[in-house]
Structure formats: C-alpha cells, structure tokens
C-alpha cells in the first residue's frame, strides 16, 4: 500500500456519516442496488441497510463501480426488524412514497440521524412499512410518468442530504467514534 493510497482512504473515512443511511425494501435488481451503493459512497454513507426478498445476500454488478467494497450493507431478516434496529439507534426513518400527503423531500432536516426508506421497483414501499416510518416524503413529479427509477430517487434525496450536511460542516471532522474509525480503517486498509 502506497502512502498516497493510505492518505486517500483516511480522507474518505473522515467524511463518512454514520448517521445517514438508506433502507431498501425489496430493491432486488442488481443494477439498482449497485447504483444506490455508488451514490451512498459519494455522499459518505458508512452502512446501508436492506431487506432482501430472496433471503439471500443481495448481488451487485459493475454498476457499483466497486463501491460495494466501501459501503457496508447490513441485510435484515424483515423490514420490521430493520426499522426497529434503526429507530433504536436514533434514526428518523422517512419512507419515500408517491402520496398526496407526503412531504416534499426538501423539507426534511437531513442533518439529524436519518434513514431514507426506498421501495421495490414495481410496488414501492408497502402500506404496513409506511405505517412504521416517521413519515412519507416525495420528489415532486411534474411530467407524464408517475415515478423515478429507484436509484435516481435515492440520488436526488441523498444529494440534498449531502448539501445540507456540507452547509452544516458535518464533513469537516471525523464523525465516527475513535474505536469504530480504527476498526473500519483496518478493514479498508486490507481491501
Ligand atoms: N408504483 C410504485 C409506487 O407507487 O411507489 C413505483 C415504485 S418506484 C419505481 C420505486 C421506488 O423509487 C419507490 O418505492 C421510491 O422509493 C422511489 N421513488 C420513485 N419516484 C419517487 C418520487 N417521485 N418520490 C419519492 N420516491 C420515489
């Protein structure tokens, strides 16, 4: 490992945001999962969460650009357990949903611990899951088509979160506690 590579790894790790994440409810297409993880890396997400309909380990493809090496993916047995896990850690869970009563996604304060819940390509977030979340958010759609591709929706919302966090100075100092920082650093240096 060169000194430059180590420096780069540390720079990126110092910008990781342990209190911003996504939760994917049955997003099963490898190119969508891969594109979302690539966005997570760009925005500084340390760990993403998923519930996989097949019960197996989700699969990635080249769309990830290798980002799945740098963004941990925690797979939960059910959406209920995933949401409880996040709530216990103090996250507010916002479900993306194309509903009349959903908030415009720009109205959320993403500097607070936030999880963005994204739904399956065909069905979206289920009603039961929506009821477990802290609220519904949507990206206004002004065209003919009803919804965006799930990875595009993830990017639009996560870059708003990045914008708010940049403004709040949250990328300026390491956000991981020293023990976790050291653990992740050792893992990343082995990659
Ligand atoms: N028929 C589905 C529905 O009504 O939710 C469409 C699902 S959409 C193709 C897949 C996922 O992308 C959604 O569950 C949501 O997570 C996200 N999504 C797509 N367009 C969105 C929008 N305009 N606002 C918020 N989320 C959106």
UniProtKB/TrEMBL annotation:
UniProt-listed GO biological process terms: tRNA guanine ribose methylation
Pfam families to which the protein is assigned, alphabetical: SpoU_methylas_C, SpoU_methylase
Reactions listed under catalytic activity: guanosine(18) in tRNA + S-adenosyl-L-methionine = 2'-O-methylguanosine(18) in tRNA + S-adenosyl-L-homocysteine + H(+)
Domain tRNA/rRNA methyltransferase SpoU type: 20-159
UniProt-listed Enzyme Commission number(s): 2.1.1.34
Segments crossing the lipid bilayer: none
Annotated binding of S-adenosyl-L-methionine, by residue: 96, 119-123, 139, 148
Residue ranges of every copy of the RNA methyltransferase SpoU/TrmH type C-terminal domain listed in the record: 163-185
Enzyme class per UniProt: transferase
GO molecular function, a single term: tRNA binding
Keywords: Methyltransferase, RNA-binding, S-adenosyl-L-methionine, Transferase, tRNA processing, tRNA-binding
HAMAP family found in the cross-reference section: tRNA_methyltr_TrmH
Homology family: Belongs to the class IV-like SAM-binding methyltransferase superfamily. RNA methyltransferase TrmH family.
UniProt function note: Catalyzes the 2'-O methylation of guanosine at position 18 in tRNA.
Protein name as annotated: tRNA (guanosine(18)-2'-O)-methyltransferase
Organism: Thermus scotoductus
Lineage: Bacteria, Thermotogati, Deinococcota, Deinococci, Thermales
């Amino acid at each position: 490992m060169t000194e430059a590579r180590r420096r780069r790894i540390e720079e990126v790790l110092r910008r990781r945001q342990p209190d911003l994440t996504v939760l994917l409810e049955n997003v099963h297409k490898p190119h969508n999962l891969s594109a979302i993880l690539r966005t997570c890396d760009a925005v500084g997400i340390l760990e993403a969460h998923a519930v996989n309909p097949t019960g197996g380990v989700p699969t990635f493809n080249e769309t990830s650009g290798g980002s799945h090496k740098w963004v941990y993916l925690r797979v939960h047995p059910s959406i209920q357990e995933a949401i409880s896990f996040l709530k216990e850690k103090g996250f507010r869970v916002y479900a993306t949903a194309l509903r009349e009563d959903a908030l415009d996604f720009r109205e959320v304060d993403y500097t607070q611990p936030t999880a963005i819940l994204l739904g399956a390509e065909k069905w979206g977030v289920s009603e039961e899951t929506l009821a477990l979340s802290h609220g519904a958010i949507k990206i206004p759609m002004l065209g003919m088509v009803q919804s965006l591709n799930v990875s595009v929706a993830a990017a639009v919302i996560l870059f708003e979160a990045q914008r708010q966090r940049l403004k709040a100075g949250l990328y300026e100092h390491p956000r991981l506690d020293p023990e976790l920082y050291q653990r992740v650093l050792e893992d990343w240096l082995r990659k």
